[in-house]
Amino acid sequence: MNTQLYLVTDSTGLSEDEFLKKVENAILGGVTILQLREKDKTTREYIDLGRKVHEITAKYDIPLIIDDRIDVAMAIDAEGVHLGQSDMPVDIARKILGKNKIIGATTKTVEQALEAYRNGADYLGVGAIYPTTTKVKTVLTSVDTLRDICKAVPIPANAIGGLNKDNIQVLKGVPIAGICVVTAIMKAPDSRAAARELKRAYEELNMAGK
Question: Are 79 and 33 in contact (CB under 8 A)?
Fold first, then answer.
């Protein structure tokens, strides 16, 4: 599992065709793992869109992660699910999904990270590093806490929250496995170019931190 450039989707203001095109272009630009996040769709709508997105991700061998909804992930046989602190506990999700599916967890403290790891999470999303413009309530996480989390658990930890190619330098020297972005790709006029620039910025950050 490569979480270097982790895209969390936002379909706000886009037609379905525009959304699917943006997702595919982002993958062509270098996205390595994709999370479908839909807070306002009905279960049926979520499953319908999930199937279409899964067709695209499968074509490029990119894992599809479903935000929050284990039922939707199972319905479309997605590669995994991502759980926040108010969602189903990781250990229960693991019992339901089995050992072969990917489970990610959002964590903001070392304690939460250790608990998620012990309960069977495969990777962590840590943040928000910066304030975000998405509809998700954000509590900021310091870069020092992010560094402590990376050192505390042996699973990949990704930084999330308001990150873009111009501000990720703040993560220099922190042993993250990658960056999670929403707006920097989904709101870009050209999602393929945006993904490519982010991937390059992350690789430069990685080299500078070594």
Answer: no
Q: Which residue has the tokens 């869109």?
A: 49
Q: What is the pLDDT of residue 174?
A: 96
| Contacts (Cβ under 8 Å, ≥6 apart) of 56 | 20, 23, 24, 27
Check residue 135 and give its pLDDT. Answer: 58
Q: How confident is the chain (210 residues) per 10-residue block, as mean pLDDT? A: 97 97 98 96 98 98 97 98 96 97 97 98 96 72 96 98 94 96 97 97 84
Q: Classify the C-alpha dihedral 93-94-98-100 as positive or negative.
A: positive
CB 90 within 8 A of CB 119: yes
Quick check: helix, strand or coil at residue 178?
strand
- Identity of the residue numbered 91: D
- Phi, psi values for residue 80, rounded to 5°: -175, -170
Residue 115 buriedness (CB in 10 A; 0-12 / 13-18 / 19+): middle
